[in-house]
Amino acid sequence: MASRSFGAALLLMTAGCSASVGSIGAVLGRDNESEALHVRDVPPGLAAERAGLIPGDEILMIDGVYVRDLSSAEVRDRLRGPVGSAVELTVVRGSDVRRVRIVRGALREQEGIKPREERIVP
Question: What DSSP element (H or E) covers 48?
């Protein structure tokens, strides 16, 4: 992955203002050229870690919709939802393709992390 150019990072550890809104708890990056979506970080104790995601996983689909067809805002919207609700991801890890069900977790306000999208210069 070192040769890939990531244009934006999506921080999906928190989602919105309400305590009833949850997220998958992962930091994702999108490749500028291919629009591929990759897991960049999986903070300990959050939903993505509990579901078994690891850095380097490529997310192909969210609830059966190809992520390459979605804008960054649409990806965020699909990954957010009520705490305790589930989202199904189709993930590529090496040569394996797997479905991963993630139960959205509550926000952890004490971490002080706010949702953001940032540009990453190659």
Answer: helix 47-51
Q: Are 40 and 28 in contact (CB under 8 A)?
A: yes
User: How high does pLDDT run on average in the chain?
Assistant: 80
CATH architecture of 6-119: Roll (2.30)
Quick one: the chain helix, strand, coil %, rounded to 5? 15, 40, 45
The percentage of the chain sitting over the pLDDT mark of 90, rounded to a whole number, equals: 54
Rounded Cα–Cα distance for residues 65 and 25 (Å): 20
Which region, left, alpha or beta, applies to residue 14 given φ > 0 means left and ψ of -120 to 50 means alpha? beta
Q: By the 8 A CB rule, do 37 and 57 touch?
A: no
- Separation in Å, CA 87 to CA 2, 52, 62, 75, 106: 29, 14, 7, 12, 14
